[in-house]
């Protein structure tokens, strides 16, 4: 018996020599992390184990020194990136990405043109990479046919390779990797990338296989990253074929995978929903681009088209196409079948709960598979060995010795191993909680007492809002989209899309959604003190808001708007700022709510046009009503109206003045012009103990509601003017929507005069008193 066991043990202990010799050319699973997206995905939250290479983006080329440059705000991210991602995956390789796009092309052309500049740049790049712990570089954004001379680019790559090799010889460290990202095709407008140099000097080339059709350019719906498409339609397969025909070897190509899609506004939403439908431009965001994370949090059912390898869906008048799990898997299989080197995702922050990254990594490489299985096999063997040893010792213990000590050790080892295995399994399942919690219909039904009328807080255009309590005692507010309202669906989707990424103390937080059973519900944090209009316009309740509390409310709204306009990743125009959308928490802190009609802008875009008129009358600026233009100055205008209401307690729907023929703005302006602001203010207010003065607020408010949007201050300026009581400010011009048009001319000259005199005041006030 014992000899049999020993034989078995020897047999079982032998296999570990199988532990695989690592393949020198490993399958690349790379991904971009963008320093600009650090608010959405912090470096320490990257699941490094799903990747072989992680790329930190972007560094630049300094336009005067031609040296590698990292913007100071991004420097902390770059310097800690490699260390942090290695904690979760010690074998990860990190690359530093250098952006050379259209705007940087002139600088880059100047750089590659001169041997001395090339050398200086290369030296600085190597120094930075080593100082910051990167294992190589990615040169991103260079296009053939741009102003950059491709011959010179080839020279740069050759010199870079040589410098990297020589640095490796001298330092004894492994050479830095050299990688470049390229366009879908190797040749544009008969200018080709320097293929030969790329083939011999680069470790590989990332093909940016996406953004073929975009709603800002193409007035028809199309797949922006189709793997296959009919001839004459841009697609990935065609691009890869062209690259292979250009002479580059397949093992130098890495396929780019998009983690974003595009949204088109359909020209004829009643009829079209397929590819090639007429479209009037981008939807949802300024350029129509949307991250996968946001697409998934809307919870719609897309159609997967396996002919093109793309998913798409239509909601209301919007048509959205993107790569879902099926498309990612199909593309990874394609890359393997073509003998490519791997894939590279753009970009990690857009993944939803690592769903796409996991799909790409699964079955992405046989070696990986075998490795994974081998680990399981070895673990099983070890467990069996220990069990058998245990049994054997137990046998010995029973029969011959009394080796209690050993038994204990064995038992302990076994239980430890068990813990380790379950811990590993947890890591593998790895559920990072997404931004939004998904609630079941049953849980919301229970929380709101089956949507009882007692729990109803109010009714918006969107549907009723209920108060609820979760099992953990947390109070919530549930907004339930009426099933009959088609119009609300878009607002719902919009609100989910936008608020998923927003977090600020002065914005009402969305906790989650419920889309079960054709329901569309949004779950918010509950705001016990209701909305501002509830106090402001009520003769009794308005007394609960003294000037100190109102200043706090104004400050909160200002901070919320500053975040939307200046400090978040995108510029967000709320478009429906009004007293009923300012909610108050237990301490009367104000929070902006209701992003149903808000719009997202890229940082560089200042204003946009829309054909849909939204917002609430009285808070909507004239350029929007007349021409459908909205910009950040839209919310500044609404803020001005709100500010006038907070200091006066007056509604916009009434008329004021002796003849009751002035709207709120005109009335305020007339009184201010005559120096009779006091008559305008809510009589219960006393600003004598506050540094924030009513008169000052009135003047700032009037500046915000001026007719010409360019005359209105930015929120940054508003914030400064409200905080700094001695800073001189302009005299406001005639507000928008003044009824008496005859006075316009007279007022214009008058305003200019007041402006001049106000400037004089400014100068005198700057002299310290
Ligand atoms: C960083 O610097 C580059 C080049 O100077 C500039 O184009 C880019 O906008 C800057 N990025 C940020 C986030 O400041
Ligand atoms: C690019 O530069 C090389 C040498 O520096 C020169 O011979 C070639 O004509 C240039 N090509 C173009 C298109 O300017
Ligand atoms: C789309 O653009 C093309 C070319 O720019 C133009 O000929 C066509 O009329 C446009 N179609 C629509 C529906 O706007
Ligand atoms: C994908 O879409 C194209 C164009 O609309 C269509 O011809 C094709 O049949 C679709 N493929 C599948 C599998 O539905």
From TrEMBL:
Region forming the signal peptide: 1-20
Segments passing through the bilayer: 374-396
Keyword presence, Membrane: yes
InterPro entries in the cross-refs: Chitinase_II/V-like_cat (IPR011583), Chitinase_insertion_sf (IPR029070), GH (IPR017853), Glyco_hydro18_cat (IPR001223), Kinase-like_dom_sf (IPR011009), Prot_kinase_dom (IPR000719), Ser-Thr/Tyr_kinase_cat_dom (IPR001245), Ser/Thr_kinase_AS (IPR008271)
Keywords, alphabetical: ATP-binding, Kinase, Membrane, Nucleotide-binding, Serine/threonine-protein kinase, Signal, Transferase, Transmembrane, Transmembrane helix
Superkingdom of origin organism: Eukaryota
A biological process from GO: carbohydrate metabolic process
Protein name: Uncharacterized protein
Domain GH18: 27-367
Transmembrane helix listed as a keyword: yes
Cellular component GO terms held in the UniProt record: plasma membrane
GO molecular function, one term: ATP binding
CDD domains named among the record's database cross-references: GH18_plant_chitinase_class_V (cd02879), STKc_IRAK (cd14066)
Domain Protein kinase: 451-727
Entries under Pfam families matching the protein: Glyco_hydro_18, PK_Tyr_Ser-Thr
């Amino acid at each position: 018996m014992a000899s049999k066991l020993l034989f078995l043990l020897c047999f079982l202990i032998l296999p570990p020599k199988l532990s695989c010799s690592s393949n020198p050319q490993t399958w690349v699973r790379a991904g971009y992390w963008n320093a600009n997206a650090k608010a959405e995905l912090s470096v320490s939250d990257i699941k490094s184990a799903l990747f072989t290479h992680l790329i930190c983006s972007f560094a630049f080329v300094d336009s005067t020194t031609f040296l590698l440059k990292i913007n100071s705000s991004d420097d902390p991210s770059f310097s800690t990136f490699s260390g942090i991602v290695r904690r979760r995956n010690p074998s990860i390789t990190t690359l530093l990405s250098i952006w050379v796009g259209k705007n940087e092309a002139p600088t880059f052309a100047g750089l590659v043109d001169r041997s001395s500049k090339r050398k200086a740049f290369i030296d600085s790049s190597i120094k930075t990479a080593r100082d910051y712990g990167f294992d190589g570089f990615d040169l991103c954004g260079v296009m053939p046919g741009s102003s950059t001379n491709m011959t010179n680019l080839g020279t740069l790559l050759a010199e870079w390779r040589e410098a990297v090799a020589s640095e490796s010889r001298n330092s004894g460290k492994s050479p830095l990797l050299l990688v470049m990202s390229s366009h879908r095709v190797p040749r544009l407008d008969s200018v080709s990338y320097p293929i030969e140099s790329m083939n011999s000097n680069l470790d590989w080339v990332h093909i940016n296989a996406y953004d073929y059709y975009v709603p800002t350019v193409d007035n028809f719906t199309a797949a922006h990253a189709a793997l296959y498409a009919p001839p004459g339609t841009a697609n990935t397969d065609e691009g890869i074929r062209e690259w292979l025909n250009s002479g580059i070897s397949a093992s130098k190509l890495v396929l780019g995978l998009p983690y974003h899609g595009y949204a088109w506004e359909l020209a004829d939403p009643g009829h079209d929903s397929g590819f090639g439908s007429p479209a009037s431009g981008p939807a949802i965001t300024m350029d129509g681009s949307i991250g996968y994370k946001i697409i998934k949090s809307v919870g719609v059912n897309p159609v997967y088209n396996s002919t093109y390898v793309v998913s798409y869906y239509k909601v209301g008048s919007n048509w959205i196409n993107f790569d879902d799990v099926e498309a990612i898997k199909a593309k990874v299989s394609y890359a393997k079948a073509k003998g490519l080197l791997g894939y590279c995702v753009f970009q990690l922050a857009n993944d939803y709960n690592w769903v796409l990254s996991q799909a790409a990594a699964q079955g992405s490489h046989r070696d990986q598979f075998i490795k994974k299985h081998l680990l399981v096999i070895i673990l099983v063997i070890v467990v069996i060995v220990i069990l058998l040893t245990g049994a054997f010792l137990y046998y010995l213990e029973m029969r011959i010795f009394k080796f209690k000590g050993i038994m204990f050790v064995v038992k302990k080892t076994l239980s430890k191993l068990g813990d380790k295995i379950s811990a590993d399994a947890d890591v593998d399942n790895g559920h990072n909680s997404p931004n939004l919690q998904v609630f079941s219909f049953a849980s919301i039904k229970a929380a709101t007492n089956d949507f009882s009328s007692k729990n109803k807080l109010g009714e918006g255009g969107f549907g009723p809002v209920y108060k609820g309590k979760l099992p953990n005692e947390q109070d919530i507010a549930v907004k339930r989209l009426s099933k009959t309202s088609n119009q609300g669906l878009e607002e719902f989707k919009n609100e989910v899309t936008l608020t998923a990424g927003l977090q600020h103390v002065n914005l009402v937080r969305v906790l989650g959604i419920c889309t079960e059973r054709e329901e569309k519900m949004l779950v918010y944090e509950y705001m016990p003190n209701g909305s501002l209009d509830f106090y402001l316009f009520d003769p009794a309740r308005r007394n609960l808001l003294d000037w100190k509390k109102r200043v706090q409310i104004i400050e909160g709204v200002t901070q919320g708007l500053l975040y939307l306009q200046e400090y978040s990743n995108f510029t967000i125009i709320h478009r429906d700022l009004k007293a009923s959308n300012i909610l108050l928490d237990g301490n009367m802190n104000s929070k902006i709510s209701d992003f149903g009609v808000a719009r997202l802008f890229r940082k560089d875009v200042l204003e946009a046009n829309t054909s849909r008129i939204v917002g609430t009358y009285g808070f909507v600026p004239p350029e929007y009503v007349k021409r459908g233009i909205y910009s950040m100055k839209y919310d500044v205008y609404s803020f001005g109206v709100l500010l006038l209401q907070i200091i006066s307690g007056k509604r916009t729907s009434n008329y004021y003045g002796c003849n009751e023929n002035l709207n709120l703005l005109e009335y305020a302006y007339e009184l201010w012009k005559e120096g009779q602001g006091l008559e305008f203010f809510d009589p219960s207010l006393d600003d004598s103990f506050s540094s924030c003065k009513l008169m000052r607020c009135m003047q700032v408010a009037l500046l915000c509601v001026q007719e010409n949007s360019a005359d209105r201050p930015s929120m940054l300026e508003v914030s400064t003017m409200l905080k700094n009581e001695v800073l001189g400010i302009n005299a406001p011009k005639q507000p928008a929507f003044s009824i008496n048009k005859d006075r316009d001319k007279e007022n214009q000259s008058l305003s200019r005069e007041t402006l001049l005199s106000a400037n004089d005041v400014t100068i005198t006030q700057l002299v310290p008193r």
